[in-house]
Design a protein that fits this description.
8 helices; globular; nine-stranded mixed β-sheet; 9 strands; Spore Coat Polysaccharide Biosynthesis Protein SpsA, Chain A
C-alpha cells in the first residue's frame, strides 16, 4: 500500500494551491482556450505548468506571450511523450493538489472549486469527475459520461471511465513518485490501475466539469490502436492471464461503446 501522509508540514502557500500540469506539443489551435479555462476558474489559488515538448508549430511563441504570473513555462528536452511531460510538471509542482489537463480540453469554470470541496468531504486523495464529449471546435456534443462515487481496481480493469483531464490528487497524502506515469502507451490508465492496485481510494464526482475535445486526428480516435494499447496493458502491465484479459477487455469495449452512443 502506498497510502500515507508525506513527512513535514505543508506551508501556508502550498496548503490549498492547485498545480495544473498541462503537457503541450503542437497545440497552437487549442492551447489558449485550454489555458483560459483555468484562468477563469472560480477557485483562483493555482499555478499552471505548461510543459512544452519540442513543438514544431507556433505553440512556443503563443505560450511565451502569456503574461499571467501564475503561468510557469517548462521547455523540455529529450522528452518524447505526454507521460514524460506530465512527469516533469509533477516534479516542478508546488501545490498541495496536482491536477492534469490535456492541451486541447476545457474545464468548466467551477471545476476546481467543486472538486476540492468534494475531495475534502469524501476524504479522498484521488478524485476524478464526469465529462462531456466535444467536437474539434469545443462544441459540446450532448454525450455526458457519468462516473461512480467509488471504483475498485477490479472494476477499473473493466471500465476505463477515469479521464485524465478530470483527475486531481491530494499531495498531502500521496507522494510525487506515486503519481509519475510509466513509459507505456495508455500511461494514464496504467497509472490509475497501479494506484488502485496498491490500495489508494479513488472517488468520482459525478458532475460534468470537463469538455473532452476530440480532434479528428487524435490518438484516441484510432480504434485499432486503442484496442492494441488496452490489450497490452492487461497482458504486459497488469500481467493478467489471457482468459481474464479477455473478460476485462470485453467489459472495457462494451462500456467504451456505450459512452459514445
Amino acid at each position: 500500500m502506498i497510502y500515507g501522509r508525506q513527512k513535514g508540514a505543508l506551508t501556508k502557500q502550498m496548503a490549498d494551491k492547485v498545480s495544473v500540469v498541462i503537457p503541450v506539443r503542437n497545440a497552437e489551435k487549442f492551447i489558449l482556450d485550454t489555458v483560459n479555462s483555468v484562468l477563469n476558474q472560480t477557485y483562483d489559488n493555482f499555478e499552471i505548468l505548461l510543459c512544452e515538448n519540442d513543438s514544431v508549430d507556433s505553440t512556443k511563441e503563443i505560450i511565451t506571450g502569456l503574461k499571467d504570473p501564475r503561468i510557469k513555462l517548462l521547455f523540455l528536452e529529450n522528452v518524447n511523450d505526454a507521460a514524460g511531460a506530465r512527469n516533469a510538471g509533477v516534479e516542478a509542482a508546488s501545490g498541495r493538489y496536482i491536477a492534469f489537463l490535456d492541451a486541447d480540453d476545457i474545464w468548466k469554470k467551477d471545476k476546481l472549486e467543486k472538486q476540492i470541496n468534494f475531495m475534502s468531504r469524501e476524504n479522498t486523495a484521488f478524485c476524478f469527475t464526469g465529462y462531456e464529449f466535444a467536437d474539434e471546435s469545443a462544441k459540446p456534443l450532448g454525450k455526458i459520461v457519468k462516473v461512480p462515487l467509488n471504483i475498485s481496481y477490479e472494476e477499473a480493469l473493466r471500465n476505463t471511465t477515469i479521464f485524465t483531464s478530470t483527475v486531481m490528487f491530494d499531495m498531502s497524502v500521496l507522494n510525487k513518485e506515486h503519481i509519475k506515469m510509466p513509459n507505456i502507451k495508455s500511461e494514464d490508465t496504467a497509472l490509475w490501475w497501479q494506484l488502485l492496485r496498491n490500495g489508494v481510494k479513488a472517488s468520482g464526482l459525478d458532475e460534468n466539469l470537463v469538455l473532452y475535445r476530440r480532434p479528428s486526428k487524435s490518438l484516441s480516435s484510432n480504434k485499432f490502436e486503442a484496442i492494441k494499447r488496452i490489450w497490452n496493458l492487461y497482458r504486459n502491465w497488469e500481467h493478467l492471464s489471457v482468459p481474464k484479459s479477455a473478460v476485462c477487455f470485453i467489459g472495457w469495449a462494451v462500456r467504451a461503446v456505450l459512452r459514445r452512443i
